# Entry
Amino acid sequence: MAGKKQFDMDTALDAAMIQFWRAGYADTSVGDLSRVTGLNRSSLYASFGDKDTLFLRCLERYAARYGAAYDAALSCAATDPVAAVRAFFDVTLERIADPALPDGCLVAQSAMAIPVLSQSVAAHAKEALGFQRRRLRAALEAGPLGDKDAEAFAEHTAAVNQSLAVMSRAGASPAQLLAVVGVTLDALSQALRGR
# Structure
C-alpha cells in the first residue's frame, strides 16, 4: 500500500535481539526497542506483543541460531569427543571474537538477570541453559565415556562455556579464554585415556 511503511520482521527481531544482548533485559526499554527496530511503540506491540513476548522471541532466535552451530560442532562426538568439545568451544569463541556482536552470551546474561525477569521469561532462560547441558550430554554419551562421566563433563563444559561469555564481557583476552578451554580439553583427554 502506498504510504504504509513496510518492515522486515527478521531484521527487526535481530535488532531487538542485539539490543537485549548488549544492554540486558532490565536495561532495555520499550523506547530502546522502538529505536533499534524502527517501529513506533504501537507497531512494536502490534507486531511482537509486550516486552516479555519480544524478549522470548529473541531468546528463541538466539538459541536456534547458535544451537545449530553447536549441534554441528558436536556431530563427531561419538568418534572423537575431544575434537567435538573443541569445536563446541570454537563456536563460542568465534561468536565472542565477532566485532559485529555484543560481548558475552544472551542466554548467560539472561540467566544472571533471573531475579528481575518475569516467571515465564526466567523459566525460559533456565530452560535454555538446561538445553545446552542436555545437548552436550547426548553428544558425549554417544562416545566412549560412560553415562556418569558424560553427565559430569556435560555439566562442566556447559558451565565453562557460560563462563567464557561472562569473562569476555569482563574483558578477558582471547589467550585467557583459550587457556580456560585448554584445561577442560586436557581433563577430557585424560578421562578418555583412563578408559
User: Anything to note?
Assistant: The CA atoms of residues 73 and 87 lie 5 Å apart. The mean pLDDT is 91. The radius of gyration is 19 Å.
